[in-house]
Amino acid sequence: MLTTLSLRLSAHPWFLPRLALVLFLATVLGLFAYLRHGEREEARLVLINDVLWVEQNLRFVLGQSEERLAALLEQSRDGSLSEAEFRSRARLIIGANAAITGIQLRTKNQSFSYGQHLSAEVTREPIALAQGMGRPSYTLPLYPKGMIALILAEHDLELVASIALPKLLQQQVPWWFAYKYRLEMIDADGREIASKSKIEADETNLSYQLPFDLVSSGLLLRITAYRHPTGLVQKLLIASVLGLALIVLFSWWRLRRQMQARLLAENALREEHAFRTAMEDSLSVGMRARDMDGRIVYVNPAFCGMVGYSAEELIGALPPYPYWNPEDIAGHQAQNEIVLSGRAPHDGFESMVRHRDGHLVATRVYTTPLIDATGKQRGWMSSVVDITALKAAEAREREQEEMLRHTGKLITMGEMASTLAHELNQPLMAMSNYASAARQFANQNNHELLDSTLSKIAGQAHRAAAVVKRIREFVQKRTPHCEPCDINHIASNAFELIDASARSQGVRLHFNLGAALPQIHADEVLLGQVVLNLLRNALDASSEQPQSRRDVWLATYCDDTAVYLSVCDRGSGIAPEVASRLFDAFFTTKSLGMGIGLNICRSILEQHRGKLWFEAHPQGGTYFYMSLPR
Fold first, then answer.
1. Is the peptide bond before 480 cis (omega within 30 degrees of 0)?
2. Is the separation of the CB atoms in 429 and 457 below 8 Å?
3. Four-residue CA torsion sign, 464, 470, 474, 478
4. Is the CB of residue 94 less than 8 Å from the CB of residue 103?
5. Is this structure's pTM higher than 0.70?
């Protein structure tokens, strides 16, 4: 058994020192607690004795006052007491007890008052109580002055004495008592009526309370002992014990520290290894660390999976890295130099890397300095996020937007098909007429008129070809291409396309193109679609109006920051409930509309960093404005 105990102690060498230290501290604390408990019990007994003494002293003083007041009441019984005698006796009574602030005497035929006067409403019930009991009674405390009234009453005699409780405590409680204790007189609800000493005591101080139950008053006396400084000997004893405990703790800590230094180092290494492993396994964002020369010193599994190379293949590699795209080595090298020089953008940069199997991976790279424990920069830490799926989604979204814009153009051209057929019919009919005339001139051998007629046929053919070309350019689906263009030229082309529709609907077109407008960098076909859509909407709004109001105006102008185009109609305007949703997709007020025209127009202008908005015409109708930066 001893051998087993010895082996267990050898396996836990710090068990006995710890046990001894705990027992030592427990013994000291227990001793202090025992002494403190005995000291508090002794102080509590002294406190109770003192408060009983004060309570007896206060009752004695009030009892003497009751006897003097009873003698005054007895003297007034036969009705021979004069006011001068009453006032003289009242002064003597107040002189014996200065806490009495006023005396009132009422007999069947007389009424005297000296000092403070209390209303009959306050004393009515206590007087009835005193008459019923046949002995003195007291009122409840009167707020806020801390007053009570002493009542003596029998048959037709009533005597009321006002007593100031704060003054009673100040006079009857000695100074040595107030030095040791705080004395409070409280009512049944716990409210303070009077007190001796204004020093506040905390909840840990000794306290005691007992009833000071004058008849019907419901008063309590509460006494609280102040904390007094601990004695010098006790302080020295406590300091010695604490100092000894600290010395023991320090010695034990120094010895234990030497033995645990190696264990702490081993635990730190294990924790670091576990942390690094957990971080590498849990992160979905690629992490790559490089030294100041650009040599890779760390990669996590997410980054290895992103590029298809193992950590062993990447660590130690210098630029060019194996995952760089061979078709853009110069671009990768430029990005690498920016990062190593400390000029990497805070919002990161995009980089296209090549996976080991050959497919390209779109990434976004965020780089920050790699700082060691001493605050010195050791390299650069990069977070690499795979955004291939995001890029694909953006491409699909752009393709869908382009398809939507193309659909809008086709819808617009469908609406204009009949009027465009009329537009083409004119040059075709002219060509037919010129051909008949040319045949006649040929039979007549009139070569001059024949040559002129053939030239007119060629001109009409070019006119028809120009109309077809504009229509094909407008409806052709292609990738947006921005180049310098003239807003007046775009407006003129739109006017030519819409002119036939305007004539068929009886709408008059007016235009005012600004002179010497600066060129804008935009896609001419897309802006033409916007202008044509705005004109088409203006025609639809004007065609429903009387002939005198069927006018549409187009104007272009500029300022220092932008180039503007406006389209105005004299239609019925836009209702307030429609205005908030006018640019929403698939919202329309037309019976056969699809609700995508204005939504597409606003998207096109926002892609060009421009704006589209509308305002009400003061005389009815609507202004639509578009702006493009210069």
1. no
2. no
3. positive
4. yes
5. no
Cβ atoms 583, 598 nearer than 8 A: yes
Integer Cα distance of 392 and 389 in angstroms: 5
Helix 15-75 vs helix 83-96: crossing angle, to nearest 10: 160
Contact 553, 510 (CB under 8 A): yes
Distance of CA 587 to the CA centre of its chain: 35
- CA-to-CA distance for 125 and 135, rounded, in angstroms? 14
Q: Could you tell me what percent of the chain has a pLDDT over 90? A: 5
One-letter amino acid for residue 464 of the chain: A
Lowest mean pLDDT among 41-45, 309-313, 622-626: 41-45
Whole-number Cα distances in Å, 577 to 45, 583, 588, 616: 86, 13, 12, 14
Q: Which residues contact 538 (CB under 8 A, 6 or more apart)?
A: 552, 567, 568, 569, 571, 624
The DSSP annotation for 217-271 comes to T--EEEEEEPP-PPPHHHHHHHHHHHHHHHHHHHHHHHHHHHHHHHHHHHHHHHH
State how far the Cα of 552 lies from the Cα of 511, in Å rounded to an integer.
8
Name residue 564's beta-bridge partners. Answer: 557, 627
Paired with 377 in beta bridges are: 371
What digits encode the pLDDT tens for the residues 308-345? 888 888 888 888 888 888 888 888 888 888 888 888 88
Integer-rounded Cα radius of gyration of the chain: 54
Q: Is 506 left (phi over 0), alpha (psi -120 to 50) or beta?
A: left
Peptide bond before 141: cis, by omega within 30 degrees of 0?
Answer: no
Tokens for 457?
């046929």
Q: How far apart are CA 179 and CA 576, in angstroms?
A: 82
Say if residue 161's pLDDT is above 80: yes
Largest CA distance in the chain: 169
CA angle 514, 516, 522 (to 5 degrees): 85
Contacts 24+ apart (CB under 8 A), 438-442: none
Residues in the chain: 630
Tell how far CA 467 is from the center of its chain: 60
CB atoms within 10 A of CB 69: 24
Per-residue DSSP letter, 324: B
Residue type for position 174: P
Instruction: List % helix, strand, coil for the chain (3-state, nearest 5).
Output: 50, 20, 25
Estimate the crossing angle of helix 447-475 against helix 388-415, to 10 degrees.
140
Find out whether 421 and 610 touch, Cβ atoms under 8 Å. no
The 10s digit of each residue's pLDDT in 488-528 is 988 988 887 787 778 878 889 998 999 889 999 888 877 88
pLDDT at 419 over 50: no
pLDDT at residue 75 tops 90:
no
Residue appearing with tokens 């030294």: 291
At 114, list the tokens: 């000296």
Separation between Cα atoms, residue 518 and residue 456, nearest integer Å: 37
Q: Please answer whether residues 364 and 387 qualify as being in contact, where contact means their C-beta atoms are separated by less than 8 angstroms.
A: yes
